[in-house]
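Bumping with the actual sequence this time:
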Amino acid sequence: MRAWRVAALAAAVATLTSACVSLDTVEMSRPAVGPEGETQPWLDAPRVRLTAYARHDRIVSSLVGPGLIVPLPIIPLSPPAKDPGRHFWIDVGVDPEGEEFSLDVRRIRLHLPDRPPLAASAFVGPVMYDLYRTGQIAICHAYREIERAPAVVAMTELGCVSLRFDVTPPPTDARFSLGVDGLSNRGNLLAPVLIPFEQRRFRRLIWAP
């Protein structure tokens, strides 16, 4: 066996024996449509698909242990308390058929129990829809983007806008919805799309060498 292959194998074995693995159980809100096992379902509208993700997920439990080769115990950890903050961010993904779609962010409304519909106070985008969830659970690839006042934006391809609402994020088991109005194709306004949310749980494996 060549020397570089031996070195690569030794490095892989060393990583497995020294790595730390964390298995987190995460609660999130996702659109209440589609199959139960589908993490990020889409809603169909005329010549366009929509999805959304509420950025108030929380870790409810964690299991931490060593790599798979060393038979050491798995340790349960209690996740630290998380400040919910004063802003509730919701990502909206748009997948249009054609390049003549636009979205008027000023017309979108958040519907929470026992309060009037709420408009976004700021937004980011459009940005790339994060197909691979690079370093995050959310769907907007919005690193280092600048917030701005709600406005009309062109949605010419698969993309995403992240909306800021000035309200404390609700718990993940709360029933709420997002009314996506202001979506137009060639200047023709489409019917509003109501996206209801429901709680879902999933497990996330993190490997740290």
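The tokens above came from a reply further down the thread. Residues 5 and 11 are 10 Å apart (CA to CA).
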